[in-house]
Amino acid sequence: MNRLVEYDMSTIVLATQNPGKVAELRSLLQDSSIEILGLSDLSDSFPEPDETGQTFLENATIKAQEYAKLTGKHCLADDSGLMIDAIGGRPGVISSHYAFNGETDGRAAALSRQQRDEHNIDRVLAELDGVELEDRSARFVCVMVLADPSGEVIATSEGTFEGRIGFPIDEPNAIPSETVPRGDHGFGYDPIFLVHPDYLQTSAELEPAEKNAISHRGAAVRAMIEHIKGLALDS
Ligand code: IMP
Q1: Catalytic status, residue 234
Q2: How high does pLDDT run on average in the chain?
Q3: Which of 49, 95, 98, 124 is 20 to 30 A from 118 (CA-CA)?
């Protein structure tokens, strides 16, 4: 018996309001019969679950399980962030609101996403003041979780993207290729993330397709696609 039928995985809800993420997954699964829906494609609107986990896996699991049970469909969720070695792996799960210590209401709620990103970048650069380039190693991490309609987790995947955090422009003795922010693409910490292995470009200087080919999210999505195809074809 085809497990796709057994699992009734003909539709997967991607737990995101971001149409770009939905389009990306759709195109990666275009050869399969699986239909991808974003939350905004559903007729009902669902409350956002609190991301109370201490790890990316816990938060992605909370979202996948919650939306699977609410929608009655298979649900795929991701959680991602930046981990900087010199500051103990922070900002980690609070990457999107690091400048506000992870608080999503109050002052943070009054700002645009771009303004929050700028505050987050300022905080990271300030915390790395005095740290040498070799010790500014960092990675983006993305974890994806697929839950079935009962809320049971049936697949997980992870991707990482290595780099270093550059120096602020006014850093004495820093050479131009080491200074940040630079680049107009991407979001979040991309303008300050110097990409491994040569650390000459920030991830905000990569074209979107170039970034997808090497990024944490690209790797996690590709690994998840393999899981999904395996579940669908396994008999
Ligand atoms: P989310 O998982 O899409 O909510 O992302 C969490 C946060 O991690 C974002 O708000 C960014 O601050 C940071 N982040 C995750 N992935 C990236 C990336 O590819 N570039 C830059 N920042 C990222």
Answers
A1: no
A2: 91
A3: 49
Q: How far is the CA of 8 from the centre of ligand 1 (A)?
A: 31
Cα–Cα distances in angstroms (integers) from residue 76 to residues 13, 29, 96, 224, in the given order: 6, 13, 20, 9
Instruction: Give the model's pLDDT for residue 233.
Output: 59
Which band of pLDDT confidence, cut at 50, 70 and 90, is reported for residue 18? Answer: confident
Q: Kindly give the distance from the C-alpha atom of residue 217 to the centroid of ligand 1, in angstroms, as a whole number.
A: 9
Neighbouring-strand partners of residue 157 = 144
Q: What is the pLDDT of residues 147-163, one digit of tens each?
A: 999 999 999 999 999 99
**pLDDT of 8:** 61
Question: What domains are there in the chain, each with its CATH number?
Answer: 3-234 (3.90.950.10)
